Amino acid sequence: MKDNFSIRYDGWKPKKQKLRETLCTLGNGYIATRGAAEESRADEVNYPGTYLAGGFNRARTEVSGKIIENEDFVNFPNWLCLNFRPERGEWLNLNTQNVPDYQQTLDMRSGTLIREFRVEDEAGRRTALRSKRIVSMRDKHIAAIHWSLTPENWSGSLEICSALDGNVINDNVPRYRELESRHLKPATTEKIGDNAIFLLAETRQSRILMAQAARTSLYQGERQLTPLISTNQREGYIEQLLRVDVEEGTTYTLEKVVGIYSSRDRAISHPGIEAKKSVQRAGRFEEICARHGEAIQKLWNRADIGIINGDKNQQLLRLHVFHLLQTVSSNTIGMDVGVPSRGLHGEGYRGHIFWDEVYIFPFLNLRFPDLTRSLLMYRYYRLEEARFAAAEVGKEGAMYPWQSGSNGREETQVMHLNPASGNWIPDNTHLQRHISSAIAYNIWNYYLTTDDQQFLSFFGAEMFLSIALFWASMTTHNKEKDRYEIHGVVGPDEYHTSYPDSDQLGLNNNAYTNVMAAWVMQKALHIVDIIEKSRRRELMKELHITEADLELWKDISKKMYVPFLDKHVISQFEGYEKLEEFPWEAYREKYDDIHRLDRVLESEGDTPNRYKASKQADVLMLFYLFTKTEIERIFENLGLEFSEELVSKNIAYYRDRTSHGSTLSRVVFSWILLKYDQQQSWDNFETVLISDFEDIQGGTTPEGIHLGAMAGSLDLVQRAFLGLEVGEDALWIDPPLLDHLKKISLRVQYRRHWIAVSLDDKKLLITFETGWKNEVNIGVQGKIHTFKLGEVREFFLNE
Ligand code: BGC
């Protein structure tokens, strides 16, 4: 744990391998490959997956007599394939051979994965291997492997196999195994030089082409060797066998440089041409690695968060920064993709994009605003589809899908398998219409952080107002209450999708959904006010928004119905009070793990719909997403009384009724508990930190990271523990002074100004490093200070 820029695993542990693979995934925001062993094939122990950002394919399967279609995140051809054997020996296989020592290190500072081990074959021939791998952050189409191989006690002929394997299927998620998993057509293969091979694969339905070209070279010191090379091909697979005589005690190096292109790329003729060209032009491993190292260092300069040196938490925080940047980076800009909730790290949730960006964008906004803009554009390009979806259910405006993939249609699976019971059950979580509010929230916060008026008035406003139109048409006016209501939806808590004993789907007046809709109305009116007048006219005309609509929005923003259980406790939805209390203790005794209560109950023939038991924060999301001032304003606008007592009573009520079946839930709890119970807030934060590293859900991390929770932990440090708040007038910093965390240092970009902040107990050091204007306003503990370019100021904080 000394070096908290790396994660080191000792010993070959087959049972842990799939988890390690996920956590050692290398990517560059364009493509990513799991940290599988080069010599491995998909089996019980290994799963070498390669994923392309936006690389989806649809396939149909018959389940229980019904044809269902899913859009999957395609596992593309495996470019890692590299293996060796001594003459007449067996190919390297860590599961069958003697491995006296094994070490695997994810070096996050340099973005490399290193494996070092010794292996002994049946004849007692011992070989030491050091493998180093990169997926270049700088040259996004290049990935490379470097092997140093030493025959320790033998001399003779060494055979190396370097291959590209297109015969892969999607097999990472056991729950999906009964579904169609073949997404690639048999690939074409070609030898493209003495030591170079090529493979071209195509997805079956979406017809995405992926081309891979690989060059494999052998060296002894600086001298390039001329091994005997033979090339073998069969359908979908091509390999080169390199034979060379080696001597005991001498180290040989091997470089496999791979060029990867897809038909989704820009500035290409054909992916095949580009892949071949790129591998010809790429230099030696060291050069590629040096360029990659510089690019990754640049990312660290922007994104690192320092807390306590040498601490495990520091290491895990960096792991979270690292994996966020493997999933999305400057290479992602312009790619027409969103952020998959499970990273580019596995096939869990099929690479789909949910509302998790709400947890992810606050960190990106303050460091990589161009990236967030591009990710928001993913939604803009799918606005037409969202309009169609709204019209299909008889509504106006735009209704974004709960799960989004290639073209923005609803991708939530229709049926899912409960592994606890083996039953296929309908999935009704698509009724989470609150996703559209999350998109609106992301648009607004991007604007607030960047002051990008151009984006707001053009793309942002069009999406935002379309979402407002949708919500307005979703509401019905209840004359008796003189309040607006929203019916037939599901809140963030996915355990409740309908009323018990009702055959109608959805719930009425989910408080979170209603309050968010009211916020959207109010913000939409504000946006209409602040954008340029000509744009306002254009949009009103294009979207058919009338003055009467604006009046209606105003009315809704003031009179949206929010159900309450008593004076202080908000009801998660209307009728929640009629549900039964859940026997938590009895279930904790009966089962080892009740995180996924939905699965447990279904396997017993029961349903969580009957109980006051939530999967994750729902009502409490409101206190997470909005600052105190904002939520006070929203409540005031709604004519509701807001008090600290209300917040604390809601926390206490729902804390006792939440199973944290989603890793996102802990992020929210850490945040909202901060003011009321520092210890519990910290415990929740530490749980977020270990959730993927220790795979606390017992098997979900091998299917991909949980990026919302990872990025959420980073956001907790900046906005909760450092007290950073983005305002229109200033960047506010008001650290809560915690017992658990006294040192934090980070850098943020606020409205085109780079600001370094470091907290050391009660001392706060702020530097206005560089920016587009010579001045920036920074508020510390309630008072605004105007900083000049280059200015450094120290503050001593009051309790
Ligand atoms: C959570 C959702 C989340 C999704 C993807 C689900 O388990 O309930 O809130 O968006 O995972 O991370």
TrEMBL record:
Boundaries of every Glycoside hydrolase family 65 C-terminal domain copy: 724-786
Domain Glycoside hydrolase family 65 N-terminal: 9-264
MF terms in GO: carbohydrate binding; glycosyltransferase activity; hydrolase activity, hydrolyzing O-glycosyl compounds
A GO BP annotation: carbohydrate metabolic process
Keyword Glycosyltransferase: yes
One Pfam family named in its UniProt record: Glyco_hydro_65m
InterPro entries linked: 6-hairpin_glycosidase_sf, 6hp_glycosidase-like_sf, Gal_mutarotase_sf_dom, GH65_N, Glyco_hydro_65_C, Glyco_hydro_65_M, Glyco_hydro_65_N, Malt_Pase/Glycosyl_Hdrlase
Glycosyltransferase keyword on record: yes
Entry binding sites for substrate: 355-356, 615-616
Keywords, alphabetical: Glycosyltransferase, Hydrolase, Transferase
Active-site positions on this chain: 494
Protein name in the entry: Trehalose and maltose hydrolase (Possible phosphorylase)
The species this protein was found in: Cyclobacterium xiamenense
Taxon lineage: Bacteria, Pseudomonadati, Bacteroidota, Cytophagia, Cytophagales
